[in-house]
Structure formats: C-alpha cells, structure tokens
Design brief:
The protein has five helices and twelve strands. The protein has 254 residues and is of the alpha+beta class. It has two domains: 102 residues, no CATH class; 111 residues, Immunoglobulin-like. Strands 5-6-10-9 form a four-stranded antiparallel sheet, with no helix packed on it. Strand 9 and strand 10 form a beta hairpin. The protein is elongated, with a radius of gyration of 26 Å. The protein starts with a strand and ends with a strand. The N terminus is likely disordered.
Length: 254
Amino acid sequence: MDQYPTPPLGGLWDERHESSGERRPQPQRGGWLVAEAYGPELGWALGDSREHPEPEWDRREAEALYDLLEPDIVPAFYTRDAQGIPRAWVARIRASMAGLAPQFSSNRMVRDYVEQLYLPAAAAFQRRWAQGSHLAKELYTWQRQPEAHWHEVHFGNLDTSQEQDHWAFHVQVYLGEVAPSWVRLELYADAMDGEDPVRQEMRQGDRITGAVNGYVYHATVPASRPAWHFTPRVIPYHPAARVPMEAALILWQH
C-alpha cells in the first residue's frame, strides 16, 4: 500500500483513508498535503500553517482540537436521521472522495516520482556519462581536492554592521589549497515560523593582504531578525554536484 507522509495527528496519508472516505482533522502545518487537500467542505484543520516549537502551542492545539470535536465533529457523526444515517458526515465523505481520490492515488504517486526524481536523475547520469565521462571525472577530482585540504580552511575576523534596514556581514576566509570556485560561502539562519532556512550566498571580495588564498566574503540580509541568528559557513560547491550527498563537508564560523 502506497502511503504519503503527513504531519503529526494525521499519521500517514494512506490511500485506504481516501478510498474509504475516512475523515481526520488535519494540522495546518508541515507539508504539502494540507495545502493541496484541505477544504472546509471536506474536513477540518488545526493550526495556522506555521511551525511552533514552543510547548505552549501543544496546549493551544489540544484546546483547538476539542473545540472542533465538541461542536462540529462529534455532532456531525452522531446526529442521525430517521434511517440512522449521519447525513452531514456522509456529505463530507462524498465530497472528499469525489474531490481528493483522483489527486491522491497510485497514478499520482508514480507520476510524481518519475517526473520529479527518476527523469532528472536519468538526465544527470547522461550528462556525466557523455563525452567519455568527462563530467564524472571532473566531479571525482572535485570531490578529492576539498577532502584532502579541508583541514586548511578556516575563518578569520567577522564584522557585522547595520545599514538602514539590513545587516551587512564581512568575514575573512582562508582556503589553503582549496580553489575558491570549488566552495560556496553562505550566511545561514535556522527556519522560523514555518519558512525555509535562510541560505544567503556570500560574495567573494578583496584578497587578504599577505595571505595565500585568503579573501573577504560579504553579504547583506534584512534586519527583520537579530544579527546573531546568522552564521557564515563554507560548503563544497559544484554546479553539477548534489551537496551534501556527494560532498558531506561543512565548516561553520562558530
């Protein structure tokens, strides 16, 4: 049985649930399922579509669940007509099966895997195999060089300043024998409020006087978050490589 992962509370999105019309309250966070599938005529939703790590939100969502159960979900299931049929519940089952079953099926699953994973992987293999495996050999060399000299990469001074509504970061980086074109400098901050982590590329600037393969890298980010949320880091880079799968190296400024 093919299953789609969903956020907590919903457990696993199993095609059996949709084919049988099973109704579950779904949390409004953590995945594409709710964004695609939720509709007030189909079921119920919890939350505000954002991630909240603080424990207080567990209590709030528990209360919200009971607020749905008592006035909406339980009456919809237990209120029966003269024939003993819960008409409101059956209406949601029919709407859900008619609207969602065609979207969440094995056909959809196979199509998504093929289009989003298998075909891009096959195309990447062909590019690496072409011209006598030229790209594959280049990637092999690229992997070996940073691995052999990664211990030489280190940070120098970090300078942070505010320029109107932006933070400006300037950091010294010493690369040793690692070519600048084979690494990427990023300014990183953890995800907040359900958004993706910040990964702002830092641009290579002036050489550091008297240093071998040392440069000042710089970047600006909106000052909507504190400066201490952001940390420079060095990771391997090649336009045809999958990082960190093919080069699991990383160096943080602190």
